[in-house]
Amino acid sequence: MIGYLDLLLRLTIWFLLTADLSLANIIIGVAVALLLPRRYTAPAVLKDGLRVLGEIIVAIPQAYFEAFEIILRPHNEEDIVMERVKPQRTPGLIFLDIFLITFTPKTIVLKYHEHGWYEVHRVLRRKNK
Amino acid sequence: MNWILLATIAALLIPIYEAWQDENIWQTMLAFSSIASKTSIMILIVSVLRDDWTLGVVGVIILSVGNAALMLLAHIIRRTNEL
Amino acid sequence: MIDTLSYLCIGVGIFFWFWGTLPLVGDRSVLFKLHSLSVADTLGSMSIVVGLLLKIPREWPLLVLALISLAIWNTVLGYVLAYCSSGGGD
Q1: Which domains does chain B possess?
Q2: Is residue C47 very low, low, confident or very high in pLDDT (cuts 50, 70, 90)?
Q3: Does B64 touch chain A (CB under 8 A)?
Q4: How high is the pLDDT of residue A40?
């Protein structure tokens, strides 16, 4: 039960890499995915998994939008802000948050503080200042 | 298709030049990370160009192993800076 | 039609590469360069791979894997570089 999202991820990578859906290959893939060691952290919930997928799908067009924004109107100012972590995040979700913030070109997470803060570096247009 | 390859080679020259001329270690690391991802994309482009998928598999493996070495190196440099 | 679209994607990707890589030579802070590099190396490369994917849909599993690992590794490397270059520690 624990970490079946993890298992799913491994199987996805395996099938994408081998691109082969024969029975033997499926057996090898499942065996390897089960045999690889894994960490026993808090089990991820399926609902979380779906939300994660949704957030990633939203993040990609947003990243391209921000890219065009900083290309068309140069952002020359930089500053650092602190952002609060949303409550009750499992380590997986915190990793996802850091990933999403860093993925969009305008913001990069500098540091994650243990007490629930991200240190985020952003670029800004001069006008905003 | 050839113009694509020429353009990528031209783009690759920029980080190489930067890695050569900048003394600051972090700027050099940035240039290296840029070189790493650009060359692996170039491998993919060449494999499409020649329609040779053994080459493509190599490119994909390089991409999926990722820049782990660069990450380790970054941590080592940070630690030596602290000393 | 598909062909034009794929050239468009590759063209956008190469434009991103040049736009994002040129600031590397300038005299800005590491973090500022990191922002433009994430445009170039993550988004630009992703769009080039999508262009290649449209050209050769036959090899989609490999190229999709390339796309996923590109996005994850480049972003994580950006975070690690930002963390380490800003002093790190606690």
Answers
A1: 2-82 (1.10.287)
A2: very high
A3: yes
A4: 57
